Amino acid sequence: MDFLSPPSPATTSPLSPDEEKLLAKLEAQNRLLETDSKSLYSVSGVLHSPSAPKVFSFEEESWNIWGYIVKEWDDWSKRKVKQLKEMVRRGIPHHFRSVAWQLLCNSQNAPVRKQYSQLLKMSSPYEKVIRRELTKTLSHHTVFQGQDGLCQKPLFNVIKAYSILDKEIGYSQKCTFIVGLLLTQMPEEEAFSVFVMLMQEFRLRELYKSNMTALGLCVYQFEGMVQEDLPELHSHFQAQGFQTAMYSADWFLTLFLSSFPLSLALRVFDIFLCEGLEIVFRVGMAILQMNQEKLMNLDLEGLTRYLQNDAPHQFVSDPERLIAAAYQVKYNPKKLKKLERDYTTIKMKEQEDQEEIRRLRSENRLLRQKIETLEKVSTQRTKYSEDLVVQMEQELMQVRLNEAACQCALKQMQAEILHLEKSNTVHSDENSVTHLQEQLISGRLREAESLTELKELRQHIKDLDEQWQRRQIDQWRVTGAKGSVESELQNEVMTARLGETHTQALLRESRHRLLQLETQKQIYEKQLRRVEQENCHQGELVQRMTAQNQHLREQLQGNRQEGQDSETKTKDVMHQEEADNMTTITKLQRKITELQAEV
């Protein structure tokens, strides 16, 4: 999009005979002016001597020509564009300026002209801001001085109406300068129509958009011209940190109205309606060229003050001199086109960078949120780890208590086993089968001895009886004393009977003893069976206790291993989580540092 030129006029058509006569007359007049040393105009058609008096004949001729131009506007705007531009460069007479501006903008047929009264009845969200800033606009012009100035109310109405019409632009303080300039030449309704055409058809609204892309392009192109045509001054600006936008932005936004006198602004605006923003480039370069020596000796503060306040007033008395210098400036449209392409590339790269920055900032925010989340998780994990450590310590303590209990139970079982073994040994000593058999054999031997004694006793009695019978026979044979022998025999029989009785008593005692021994034998046998059963039970109990002991040992070993594994696992988990958190935090901090460096 080309912001330097106004809408292109129609193609030039052949001139009529009357027009050719008028053009020949104008060319003859121009040649006379060029050869006249006292003429206001030089060969280039611009002001040559600031002190030369005006030539009435030329002014009168200019009035006649502009009257003819206005009358035959359609013809001039379509077929005599070059001649029309030449006349505009030389200046539009004051009384024709209002009509000429409207014709140049083609605002008579603008549809918004009929909407103006309706827009004034509506309310704008910018009304308070517009009222507050109106007094700052063209304060050097009497019609805009104070809140009760002649043009203050029309200025408010036009700005308000446009802020309602164009909601994207709304209100911009720099627009007020353009509207104020228009109100110095025409009524508010016509000024509104011209302003709308300027914003839409002349694309001025592109300069006032919030993204400032069009304004940035103009500033970039102007800086390129300064760098190419005034390299020393450009280097001085760069050394002082004085940016081109600090002084040139207002020139493009207000067409020099913010700091230059109204007389120069009118001349610039005349040419702007024919040539577009080209005149701003030319006049701006002319200002820098004419003041280069002065600017080279100023610092940042001096440069700002000079280009914004001081320098414009040097041309108050004669703006034609600045216009003449402007048309001596090297103006290369191809160079500007190349700068426009470069700026578009830079802007696209800048947009990509901005998108990348926004993405990186978004990533940065996400990373920060992630870091905060990780810190919270780390804190929670630390707390959880502490709780887990406490729990594991409690479990470990419980395992150790169980281990101690198992060891105590094991010792008790070992002591009980030893006691049972000792008890079995004692029982085996006292109640063993061998001992009982020996006692039984001893009883039977005693019984056999008793039987033997009884047999011996009976044999003795039999022997005594035989001996007594033999002795009785012998004595009877010898003595024949029957009475004494009977007495002795009775004594011996009595004695034998007593011995037999005694022996029978001993026999009965032996039988009684044998019965006791048999009873004791049965008792011992039953006791032996009980001992054997108890030994079997104790053996089973020992086996069971041994198995239980082995199981407890295995459980104890498992508890120890589980405790060691739990401690190792807890330490590994804590170390791993700590290492992961440190690694993550380090990566995130490095990423944040890189993002901050890139931003």
Automatic annotation (TrEMBL):
Keywords from the UniProt entry: Coiled coil, GTPase activation
Pfam families: RabGap-TBC_2
Region (Disordered): 556-578
SUPFAM superfamilies: Ypt/Rab-GAP domain of gyp1p
Compositionally skewed regions (Basic and acidic residues) per UniProt: 562-578
One Gene Ontology term of the molecular function aspect: small GTPase binding
Residues forming coiled coils: 336-377
Ranges where the Rab-GAP TBC domain occurs: 91-276
Name of the featured protein: Ecotropic viral integration site 5 protein homolog
Species the sequence originates in: Chanos chanos
